[in-house]
Design goal:
seven-stranded mixed β-sheet, mainly beta, disordered C terminus, 1% helix
């Protein structure tokens, strides 16, 4: 069901007053499953496991720093971490940070990739690592200061300065793989790229695999390691409508072995992040717009070793203030993320937009859906035991006069798993005109086996 909250006066760790009860939230976390943290002008990046059952919260601060906090199981900041629970690492970054893929590492560190300025109007990729204490790993990648700069233009001369890193995954050798897309100047369209990093963060390979059978802009948004070590890269491109694709890439030479393109029933789609649920089964988040100009609907793409399929999830619930204002709602797939809840469930989190006259109006809520992915396509289904018919949501109505009774701007960033409990990360704004007074928002759900017993532990 939809949850509405209001933000109390600013404190270091804010609390929220629930208006509608939601049994899917974990009451062990901050009393009602929700924590709001005021860390100034921060944009949330990721949460990662920390020692002792705690959790790292990693944010970027403006254009100049990465801020790391450590959370206790109850949602409070750990006062034993950094200064008053927070550590700051100075890292020069690009102002937009349109995409900031990050990877939780087994040693407790966090690898992050962002877009940064190069020479003149050029833009490059920068990869760096934050250790378990929130400090910059200065030996990372063998680069000066631990900042690994990647100039894709040097590997392919027809590229522009528009680069989009979209995902970073762990590789079997301890390294990592970055996937994304970059603008090609000769055609004015995007094409995929992959960058392989060693276990120490050094660049080992840059490649530009291109799926066959697609045209216009072709974007790469997710990746996984398939059976036998082959690399799966998933994204979307045009073929009589925008469709999802999967490329099989040989890990030895990074050549495209083959490409699969979704069928006609899966056109007009956008693809976001993905997760490997179990060996040979990759689930990818996205949206579909069945009719151009109508609201986008959340969906899951399921890629098995020799098949691909999709599962439609229910539309988001109406948001506070939208119906009275003549607004619809739609799923915002650009920042959608997934977390695997073994053995057979995935939780999808994404933004919700208010929508009118064929266009989005503003970021207005967070959508959560859950699905069961079985041993075969016939067993894939929406998990109707979750929320209302398989989906849940949160929105923050504001009493601030600048909002005119509408929802605040609120954005989704990441979903992780904390002791089998999905942890959703985003941010909310206290004011609407202009959007300001933003805070970090954390929601922790009860584990799946608890929710199947109607929310009672």
């Amino acid at each position: 069901m939809l949850r509405s909250i209001c933000v109390l006066p600013a404190l270091w760790l804010l609390t929220v007053q629930p208006v509608l009860a939601i049994e899917d939230l974990d009451p062990r976390f901050s009393g009602d499953g929700i924590a709001v943290i005021d860390q100034g002008d921060d944009w949330p990046v990721i949460t990662c496991p920390a020692a002792g059952g705690k959790r790292l919260l990693v944010n970027r601060t403006g254009e100049s720093a990465i801020t790391t906090s450590r959370l206790l199981d109850n949602g409070q900041l750990d006062p034993q971490f950094g200064v008053a629970g927070t550590a700051v690492a100075a890292v020069s970054t690009f102002p937009s940070w349109r995409y900031t893929p990050a990877l939780c590492r087994d040693d407790g560190s966090v690898w992050i990739v962002s877009e940064v300025p190069g020479n003149g109007d050029d833009r490059n990729l920068r990869v760096f690592a934050i250790d378990a204490n929130g400090a910059l790993q200065t030996a990372f990648g063998g680069a000066p200061g631990g900042l690994v700069n990647i100039d894709l233009d040097q590997s392919r001369p027809d590229l522009s300065n528009i680069e989009f890193p979209r995902a970073m995954i762990a590789m079997p050798d301890g390294g990592a793989l970055i996937v994304g897309h970059v603008r090609v100047t000769t055609i004015g369209r995007d094409r995929p790229f992959v960058v392989k990093l060693s276990a120490q963060g050094a660049v080992q390979r840059i490649a530009f695999p291109e799926p066959a059978g697609l045209s216009e802009s072709i974007r790469a948004s997710a990746a996984a390691v398939g059976p036998g070590g082959g690399i799966w890269v998933v994204g979307d491109g045009y073929a009589s409508g925008n469709r999802a694709y999967r490329m099989y890439i040989d890990p030895k030479n990074y050549a495209v072995v083959r490409t699969e393109i979704s069928d006609d029933s899966a056109s007009n789609v956008g693809v976001s992040s993905g997760v490997l649920l179990r060996s040979g089964v990759m689930v990818v988040a996205g949206t579909q717009t069945p009719v151009v100009g109508e609201p986008a609907q959340p969906r899951l793409f399921v890629f098995r070793a020799n098949s691909n399929s999709f599962t439609m999830l229910p539309m988001p619930n109406p948001l506070p203030g939208t119906a009275g204002a003549g607004l619809q709602v739609q799923a915002d797939g650009n920042g959608a993320t997934l977390v695997a809840v073994p053995p057979d469930r995935v939780v999808l989190a994404m933004g919700v937009d208010s929508f009118a006259n064929g266009d989005r109006v503003r970021d207005a809520g967070i959508y959560v859906g859950r699905a069961i992915i079985g041993d075969s396509i016939a067993e894939d289904r929406v998990d109707t035991a979750f929320g209302i018919g398989g989906r849940d949501g949160l929105s923050v109505p504001s009493g601030d006069p600048s909002c005119s009774g509408q929802t605040n701007r609120q954005e989704h960033a990441h979903v992780g798993l904390w002791d089998q409990r999905p942890l959703i990360l985003g941010r909310i704004f206290g004011r609407c005109s202009p959007d300001s007074q933003d805070d970090i928002l954390l929601l922790r759900l009860a584990p799946a086996d608890v929710l199947l017993r109607n929310g009672f532990e």
